Amino acid sequence: MILDPDWTAHFANPLPLPTRIELGKKKILNVDIRQTEQWLGLTDADGAPLTTTVWGYGVNGKVGYPGPTFVATAGEPQVFVWRNQLPLGPHLLPVDTSTHQAMPTQAGMIPTVTHLHGGRVDSASDGLPEAWYTQGFAEVGPAFVSRFQTYSNDQQAGTLWYHDHALGLTRLNVYAGLAGFYILHDKNEVALVKAGVLPGGKYDVEMAIQDRSFTADGQLYIPAYADDPIPGTTETVADTLPEHYHGPYPTVVPEFFGDHILVNGMAWPKFGVEAGEYRMRVLNGSDSRFYVLQTDNPWVKVTMVGSDIGLLPQAVTVMDGDGVQEEGEQLVMAPGERMELVFDFGAVGGQSVVLRNHGPAFDPFKGMDGDALAGGIDSAQGYSVGEIMRFDVAAGPALNNASVEDGTVLDPTYQAILDSDADVVRKLGLFEQTDHHGRIMPMLGVAEESLDAAGNTVFGPLMWDDPTTERPLLGDTEIWEIHNFTEDAHPIHLHLVKFQVLGRHAMSFTDEDEDGVPDDVTGDGAVVAGEDTVIDPNGFVRIEDEGWQDTAWVAPGEVIRIAATFDIAGEYVWHCHVLSHEDNEMMRRFEVVDPMALAA
After folding, report:
1. 455 and 536 inside one domain
2. Which domain holds residue 504?
3. CATH number of the domain where residue 136 is located
4. Is the peptide bond before 248 cis (omega within 30 degrees of 0)?
5. CB proximity list for 316: less than 8 A, separation 6 or greater
């Protein structure tokens, strides 16, 4: 959908703020997963509201999309029971049963399992993709342990989120509405708010940015059949598939990009703010869409104070609010990532400010070339997906000043991980293959010959069911060097751990047989990244790489080096957080092994 010239008129719907539920009073919290009807800001040709069928989370019978924001305190554990109460029958969206997915035996059963994204939790409570269960726990997956999910909240303050993670159905269940915020406070963060360093109270706002498409009557739309149009393009699903493809249908598509941007479940939202400072907890909860965020008014100052897992060691001013749009005054957000940003509206009282998206319009993200999109792809500017929301700033004096500025110390306990701290360095790879139907299938794997858990020597792309290759020892610090051999960027998420980005390095390789795997150019019979590839030793980091992360994107032809300490034993997963990739084999297990158990 191309924007009409008077695009500002579209921002007509007040931004909804999720209900906040303070945890700690109930030791066991029952959260319902149910179907409901909700207004997402859509109207018919006459301006009458159109309601949309969605799936939502809720407490005491009140469910919605997104779900309530759960507010926890560090060190105070909480037990959740996520109760699947979806109606019996077909899924709300078309399901491709040819992919590897949770598959109940009883008709009408719909699998769900909730993952606390960014949570440091035991494996049994992690929401693993094979720990799924159906309505009323009638059927459960092979990794299911208990209906009680225990979150120790034994970590620093941060903006986490929860979402469905059922094997092969994550993209559909999240698209239907199964996601919400989980905010964790600790003593350090509370002190910063009380001291006026960070905004708090009503000036602390969560914003989940997601793209969606709809049918003419306002229902969720996702292309899956041959003649289904691809939003934002002139193509159909058949155009994205091999020339002689004849099924199965419905089918997965390589990526999905909607033509409406929603914030907290509302299209074309506006938000009234005072002429002062707000702490915005921003989540990219989209399937495949990367956002490049920028305001349309360079008098708005934006300071980054937090990343995925918590507060930055020091605040970083990204947009300096001097009235001049300068190079670098924007932020890239990949699917699954969160950022805590302090917006200072003090210089624009009585005006309106639009949060814009300069990311790709309807194409996969390929990285950045300075401030421009790499790969020559179309920017979202000029399209409906180029404008996210509008802030209407009240006139008058600011009542909500905060003292945070560039360089303000926020996390005095932060310690950088050094190369010398690593017990193990692993070389891992991102690959693109085709499935037995000829469809694109992105995959994870290893970028050097490695031993898997079964004792096999393996290299290259690996399936979900292949034996585990990443088995860190409990307490070890590892560096993972992730090599992107594909043509698109991928946001890589590790469960359990928080990690630091040590650097990004340009990489080139030879693939004369075009099999998606580097060639053995040294002729020694083995392919090893760094020997059969050329890696620039001069690395760099982006503003978005600062602090503790759980998700980081890797550009095509790039190696990203991340470091983490694996401090709870058990099985977990790592995967691409483009949900359409995660659901189609771009996910692998890793196992944190207790050496004492090995010795026993």
Report:
1. yes
2. 419-599
3. 2.60.40.420
4. yes
5. 303, 304, 406, 543, 546
